[in-house]
Design brief:
This protein is mainly beta and 366 residues long. It contains 4 helices and 16 strands. A hairpin with a 3-residue loop joins strand 4 and strand 5.
Length: 366
């Protein structure tokens, strides 16, 4: 999971470098990509299943956003699309096959008349045919559930010899994880090299510049937030009980510009699975203060209109489980639901280890 964290962090940094550009009007694009890759070994106990290669086929449908929202212009009129991918592993006894379905945004980093460099990020659902089974598939210690979260990042070069057709070549990174909902959950990391062909079609649409849009109310420069969320956490042995984890945060956030916010926070995490895990090692703690994880954090939020996605990095001031790293992270997305109230989804990790996912609310304090 630490590679996913580093890649997403790079995306958030690159997001602030993406500038509005003079680009062609917004056609539809239908594309087919094919790639070859391998599975990254990120844990010694995965060596049985990770020394293998796979092929990947992907179908995409996307459309350039033409400026009907203010943020379209700020991000260089990105493409919004949908991807469906098929992964065919050579050691089918462990994983079989996998499928992902995910929406995405694709951003211009370098844009030319015939040649452009693009960055694509996608988050969606993934399905894996064969998962861990104590009797029939016990060597697959990477993943314990068929339904998973899918995450991908693609950096690709596109060449357009004509207005209707284009070709692409890129490096893609894909990740399957159930976010700690069902053990085992070491995750699957799949880098690929891909080639593709794209057909552009549809009636051209006039680009709308930000200056042409009606003015919107300027947001407050300093924000104070309260967050509350819950999630389901699993623990070994496989097939044992699941636990309800809770998280609470107090944040102060500064609006840096129309594209991003920076902030700091005080975080409280309470996960009964931690107490159960420690008891297996003959370490017994109380259910109250001893089981509480306390930390301080910094976060970066990127804004795409009302929707925002961000990353948080924190340091524990208090924790009982020595197996957890001192550094924790959260990757999250949020969207307003009513006045100062937003809903958010978050994945909490300890770099290489996903702990659990959270679903909650974020309230902007007056």
């Amino acid at each position: 999971m630490h590679k996913s964290f580093c890649i997403l962090l790079s995306f958030l940094i690159l997001g602030n470098l993406i500038k509005a550009q003079e680009v062609p009007a917004s056609p539809w694009r239908l594309g087919l990509k094919y790639g070859k890759g391998f599975m990254i070994t990120h844990s010694p106990i995965m060596e049985y299943v990770s020394e293998q290669h796979f092929s990947k086929s992907e179908l995409i449908l996307e459309k350039r956003l033409n400026g009907t929202k203010e943020w379209h212009d700020r991000y260089g009129y990105p493409y919004a699309g949908m991807s469906i991918s098929h992964f065919n592993f050579d050691k089918k006894e462990f994983f079989g096959e996998a499928i992902s379905l995910s929406p995405y945004y694709s951003f211009s980093i370098v844009n030319g008349q015939k040649l452009d460099l693009r960055l694509r990020t996608t988050v969606g659902a993934g399905w894996i045919e064969k998962t861990f089974d104590l009797e029939e598939n016990h060597k697959n210690v990477a993943i314990g559930s068929q339904l998973n979260l899918f995450f991908g990042v693609l950096m690709e070069m596109n060449y357009h010899p004509s207005d209707e057709w284009g070709f692409s070549m890129g490096i893609n990174y894909s990740h399957f994880s159930n976010t700690g909902f069902q053990n085992p959950n070491l995750g699957i990391n799949l880098p690929t090299i891909e080639l593709g062909i794209v057909h552009q079609f549809g009636k051209d649409a006039e680009l709308i510049k930000e200056a042409q849009l009606p003015e919107t109310k300027k947001e407050e420069n300093i924000l104070f937030n309260f967050r509350w969320a819950n999630g389901i956490s699993d623990n070994y042995p496989v097939g044992g009980p699941k636990f309800l984890a809770s998280a609470m945060s107090f944040e102060v956030e500064k609006e840096m510009n129309q594209k991003s916010n920076l902030g700091m926070g005080l975080d409280f995490y309470y996960n009964p699975a931690q107490k159960s895990k420690l008891a297996q090692d003959s370490i017994y703690i109380d259910s109250g203060w001893e089981n509480l994880q306390l930390g301080i954090s910094a976060h970066h939020l990127m804004k795409f209109g009302k929707f925002g996605c961000g990353i948080k990095a924190g340091f524990y001031l208090k924790k009982e489980d020595d197996d957890l790293r001192n550094i924790y992270t959260e990757v999250y997305g949020q969207h307003p639901i009513w006045k100062d109230l937003s809903a958010f989804f978050s994945l909490k990790t300890h770099l290489a280890r996903a702990e659990y996912s959270l679903l909650g609310i974020k309230y902007r304090l007056k």
